[in-house]
Write a structure and sequence with these properties.
Blueprint: H1 13-25, H2 29-41, H3 52-55, E1 61-64, E2 70-73, H4 98-109, E3 113-114, E4 117-118, H5 122-128, E5 160-162, E6 167-169, E7 181-186, E8 190-195, E9 200-204, E10 208-209, H6 214-232
Parallel strand pairs: 1-10
Antiparallel strand pairs: 1-2, 3-4, 5-6, 6-7, 7-8, 8-9
Length: about 240
C-alpha cells in the first residue's frame, strides 16, 4: 500500500500481537486473557466463549436501512449454533458487558491497576497513550465495505494520532473530552474514551451496523456532552 513511515493505516496488527502473546506464553489467547485479565479484575461477563445462560442475555443486533430505520437481526442464541471456536484472535471476538468493559477502561485510566490488582505496568500504559506514529496523522479511514462500516472521521478537522492501543485526541472537543484523551471503538458502534486530565472514563454501547453510523455517533456525542455538563454543574464528580 505504501512504504513504511509514509502513512498510517488501520489493519490486522493486533491479530499478530495476539499470535505473539500465544507463542510467548504457551497458552491459547482465551486462557491467557482469562487468567491474567478477566479473572483478576472480576470481569465475569467477558470472554471469547460464553455460557448458555450468558447467551440468553445477548443483545440483538440491528442494521441501518436505506430509509434510516433499523432492522433487527437474529441473535446468535436463536440461530443455528456452531461449535465453540478453537482459535482466538487478538483483534476481536470477545463478548462483554458495559460494566465489565468499564472495569477494563478504568484499569487503564488508573495506570494499569484497579482495586489493588495490577494488570499492566505504569510505563506500558503510558506508552499506550503516547504518539507512536510521529509526524503522521490518522486521517479519515476510508471504508472498503460500506455495509459494515462508513468512512470514519470522528473529529473532523482535528489532528489525531495513534498510540499503542488508543487513538489520541490532541485538541479538546467542545463541551467534551480534553486534549490528550484516548479512545477507540468496536465494529457494532461500541465506544470508550479515557480523559486523563479530568479523570473521566466512559463506555457507550450499541449493537448497530454499519460502524460509524451517523445517528449513533450523534447520540454518543450527546452522551459525552451530558457527562461533562453534569460534572461542571456539580451533579457528579469525576473519579
Amino acid at each position: 500500500m505504501f512504504d513504511p513511515g509514509e502513512r498510517w493505516q488501520y489493519g490486522g496488527n493486533i491479530d499478530w500481537v495476539g499470535r505473539i502473546v500465544q507463542a510467548v506464553s504457551g497458552e491459547p489467547l482465551e486462557a491467557h486473557f482469562r487468567k491474567h485479565i478477566f479473572e483478576p479484575l472480576g470481569m465475569s461477563d467477558t470472554g471469547f466463549v460464553i455460557t448458555p445462560a450468558q447467551r440468553t442475555r445477548e443483545a440483538s443486533g440491528h442494521r441501518r436501512q436505506f430509509d434510516g430505520s433499523l432492522k433487527a437481526e437474529p441473535t446468535e442464541h436463536l440461530s443455528k449454533q456452531s461449535p465453540p471456536p478453537q482459535s482466538f484472535t487478538g483483534g476481536g471476538g470477545i463478548y462483554s458487558s458495559a460494566p465489565d468493559y468499564l472495569t477494563l477502561v478504568r484499569m487503564l485510566m488508573n495506570g494499569g491497576a484497579l482495586d489493588g490488582v495490577r494488570i499492566l505496568q505504569p510505563d506500558t500504559v503510558a506508552l499506550m497513550g503516547q504518539n507512536q506514529i510521529g509526524r503522521l496523522d490518522v486521517g479519515v479511514l476510508r471504508t472498503t465495505t460500506p455495509a459494515v462500516s462508513r468512512d470514519v472521521d470522528f473529529f473532523p478537522g482535528r489532528k489525531l494520532k495513534w498510540g499503542f492501543g488508543h487513538m489520541l485526541t490532541l485538541e479538546p472537543v467542545p463541551e467534551g473530552r480534553s486534549a490528550g484523551s484516548l479512545t477507540w471503538a468496536g465494529i457494532y458502534n461500541t465506544y470508550y474514551w479515557i480523559d486523563p486530565k479530568t479523570r473521566i472514563a466512559a463506555v457507550f454501547m450499541t449493537q448497530v451496523l454499519p460502524f460509524a453510523d451517523d445517528r449513533v455517533l450523534g447520540v454518543y456525542r450527546r452522551f459525552e456532552r451530558g457527562i461533562y455538563a453534569a460534572i461542571k454543574a456539580g451533579y457528579v464528580k469525576a473519579n
